[in-house]
């Protein structure tokens, strides 16, 4: 009898626990977004609250696409059930900036695409020269500090789109130089970041520096900074030092340093540019 009561009590407790976002339906997620907006006026705290409500969300690569707007694949335009590192960050920011499901979905596309124009060619594929530049209204690059090293990149979007998405576009090659903070210096600067700021991990792959992973800054109960991010097997929160040690323990990890993106103090989501009318014959 006692055992049955304990089992029933445990089941009742489990059912009373609030769902994580990845366990919600879109209708439940919309209600959650509206509730957080009403209950927490501080954007930075909303970002942390929403991000933590996705701890445990399964990690999965190649989640999103433009379907049904474009037909180069059948991947959807949002995901609640799983995330990769960028999907997790984009969804968190979009939810924190919104008061309804409809506003979240619109804001998400504004963050994912240049000027909010949906299309594989206008998606922010490269963090340094697409995502960071096109989302300057949201975050500012804090990596260009005195004495900070830099790396050169050559971006061939036309080749990338042709190889990865079988889409033909005439886009010129772009050269850029990007500042970053080496690991030891980044560990010191991490303590100056605020809740809701973005951390971008810079790695060396085939001799080329590039951003390969992103996550968000949150504060613990004592005010210490922690790294909250989507990484296999699931979304987790941990000290940056733990992430660094685990990464450096992997052979040929290539960890070079970090770029830090600071959340702007006054944010107004800019309007999207008009969606261009398709031409005859499509893409």
Give the CATH H-level superfamily. Answer: Putative xylanase like domain
Overall number of domains: 1
The first-level CATH class name: Mainly Alpha
Q: Give the integer mean of the pLDDT values.
A: 93
Q: What CATH architecture do you see?
A: Orthogonal Bundle
Which parts are unreliable, with pLDDT below 50 for 5 consecutive residues or more?
5-14
> DSSP helix count?
9
CATH topology: Putative xylanase fold
Overall strand count = 9
**Which sheet architecture does the biggest sheet show?**
7 strands, antiparallel
Written description of the protein model:
- The protein has helices at residues 2-16, 26-39, 43-52, 85-96, 101-112, 127-134, 157-165, 183-189, 240-248; strands at residues 139-141, 150-155, 174-179, 181-182, 198-205, 208-219, 225-231, 234-238, 255-263.
- The chain is of the alpha+beta class.
- It has one domain: Putative xylanase like domain (Putative xylanase fold, Orthogonal Bundle), CATH 1.10.3670.
- Strands 1, 4, 5, 6, 7, 8 and 9 form a seven-stranded antiparallel β-sheet that branches.
- A hairpin with a 2-residue loop joins strand 5 and strand 6.
- The longest helix is centred in the N-terminal third of the chain and has 15 residues, at 2-16.
- The model is unreliable at 5-14 (pLDDT under 50).
């Amino acid at each position: 009898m006692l055992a049955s009561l304990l089992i029933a009590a445990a089941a009742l407790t489990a059912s009373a626990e609030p769902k994580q976002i990845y366990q919600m339906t879109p209708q439940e997620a919309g209600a959650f977004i509206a509730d957080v907006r009403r209950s927490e006026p501080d954007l930075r705290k909303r970002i942390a609250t929403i991000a933590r409500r996705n701890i445990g969300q399964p990690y999965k690569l190649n989640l999103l696409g433009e379907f049904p707007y474009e037909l180069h694949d059948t991947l959807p335009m949002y995901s609640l059930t799983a995330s990769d590192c960028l999907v997790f960050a984009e969804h968190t920011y979009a939810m924190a900036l919104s008061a309804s499901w409809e506003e979240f979905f619109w804001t998400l596309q504004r963050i994912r695409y240049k000027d909010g124009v949906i299309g594989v060619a206008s998606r922010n594929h490269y963090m340094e020269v697409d995502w960071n530049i096109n989302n300057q209204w949201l975050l500012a690059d804090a990596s260009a500090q005195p004495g900070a090293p830099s790396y050169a990149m050559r971006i061939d979007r036309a080749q990338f789109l042709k190889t990865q998405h079988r889409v033909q576009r005439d886009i010129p090659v772009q050269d850029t130089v990007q500042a970053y903070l080496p690991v030891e210096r980044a560990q010191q600067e991490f303590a100056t970041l605020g809740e809701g700021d973005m951390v971008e991990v810079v790695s060396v792959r085939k001799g080329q520096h590039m951003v390969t992973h992103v996550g968000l800054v949150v504060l613990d109960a004592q005010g210490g900074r922690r790294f909250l991010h989507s990484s296999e097997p699931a979304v987790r929160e941990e000290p940056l030092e733990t992430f660094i040690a685990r990464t450096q323990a992997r052979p040929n990890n290539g960890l070079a340093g970090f770029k830090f993106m600071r959340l702007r103090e006054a944010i107004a989501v800019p309007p999207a540019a008009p969606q261009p009318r398709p031409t005859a014959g499509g893409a």
